[in-house]
């Protein structure tokens, strides 16, 4: 397989395809067309075919895609066929909630530990995760080969913590902190700001309240289950 730069929206849609195909597999559905898969995601079938054609020929013209084979191929593309160790930095309300989220384990992410600087939290257990100090975190990162981290720390410490993580070998950071993180050059960074989605909904509702009808959109976000 040739490796090349894949647009981020395509990768996000692959994740959606994966979830839908898993549900179809559980229901015993053997074949799905690009039209049906597109309808399930809320996009045009041409976008589905273009996305999948970037990685090879998966379907049969006039027949569709074998659900199990396509699911397995997308799982391999997304690395879902193996476990990925992760640490969560910040054992406050948000970090604790993220640690308790069962979807991480279901999608192949193994939360090794939570990291915090508060002496009262270090050594405690949240769900089944131990809160550790930075010194212990460094050992765990090396021991488990952790390359990904989730940030749930106060805004004023995000940048410094991100740099500290990359110094320890972290290559990808998912930032839930209330600030846009400009990641270190060696790290891949994804900023998650839930208020953006609330603003999107609020904008639509505001238009409705003022008697305006926004243009219909089939774009769907990635659901959390």
Automatic annotation (TrEMBL):
Subcellular location: Cytoplasm
Positions annotated to bind NAD(+): 90-95
InterPro entries: CoA-bd (IPR003781), NAD(P)-bd_dom_sf (IPR036291), Rex_actinobacterial-type (IPR058236), Rex_DNA-bd_C_dom (IPR009718), Tscrpt_rep_Rex (IPR022876), WH-like_DNA-bd_sf (IPR036388), WH_DNA-bd_sf (IPR036390)
UniProt KW RNA-binding keyword: no
SMART domains referenced in this protein's UniProt entry, alphabetically: CoA_binding
Residue stretches making up the CoA-binding domain: 79-180
GO biological processes: negative regulation of DNA-templated transcription; response to redox state
Keyword Lipoprotein in record: no
Function text: Modulates transcription in response to changes in cellular NADH/NAD(+) redox state.
Subunit structure: Homodimer.
Name listed for the protein in its UniProt record: Redox-sensing transcriptional repressor Rex
Gene: rex
